Each structure stands twice: as C-alpha cells, then as structure tokens.
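Progress against Task 2.4 (sequence-to-structure conversion) is shown through the following example record, which the project officer requested during the mid-term review.
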Amino acid sequence: MAHLIPSLKRAYGTVVGVDYTDLYFSDADRAYYDAPYCTSQESWRTLMACDFWAVASDASLSYEPNLCFEARATLFTEAVNQLAHHIAVAPEVEAGFLQGAQKRFLGYGSRDSGLEND
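Structure tokens generated for the chain above:
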C-alpha cells in the first residue's frame, strides 16, 4: 500500500494515515513482531509514507476491556471522524491533526517534522 501514497499526495496534497492495532495480532503473526505499536511491517511502512499518521487501539478508544468487533468498529469510526473534523476546521492540517489525535490515538506523528507521541 505504501506505493500508493505518492499518487494520493499528488491528488490531495496531504495524506493522513490511520491504523488500528490489536495486541492479539502480534501473538499470531511474525510480521507484527518488529513493527512499532504491534502493526504489521507493511502497515508501518505505509503510515511512514504519509504526511501524518495515527494508530488507535482498544485501550486508546475505550476503558472497557474485551470490546466486541462492532464496538471496536464504532469507536474507531468515531475517532477517525473526530480527527477528520479537527483537520477540516483547523487553519492548517498539522494543528487540526495534533488537536484531534491527542485524545483517541495510542500514537501519532508527522513524517516531515519528526513529531511523534507515544
């Protein structure tokens, strides 16, 4: 997927990558062992190709343990929608991204400015 990011940047200017991580994946698949935030190596490469990136998890979305799939999907969708809203109303993408990512994401950062929070 990382190979698609340059085309998206040409079309849209700025690309924000968002991923969801589940610690259970890292137990089942060796591709998840070396990448940060228990993402796959391919997911991490794709996020790093984006201008801004954020990773969500069960713990960053809710205090309730053992969320069902539907609850995870709903909370993740809400978090992405809130992030998009913050970006849309901010005077610049970075300001909106920072404001939106701080509350609901496990980690987030910027490729160009070296911004990273975990």
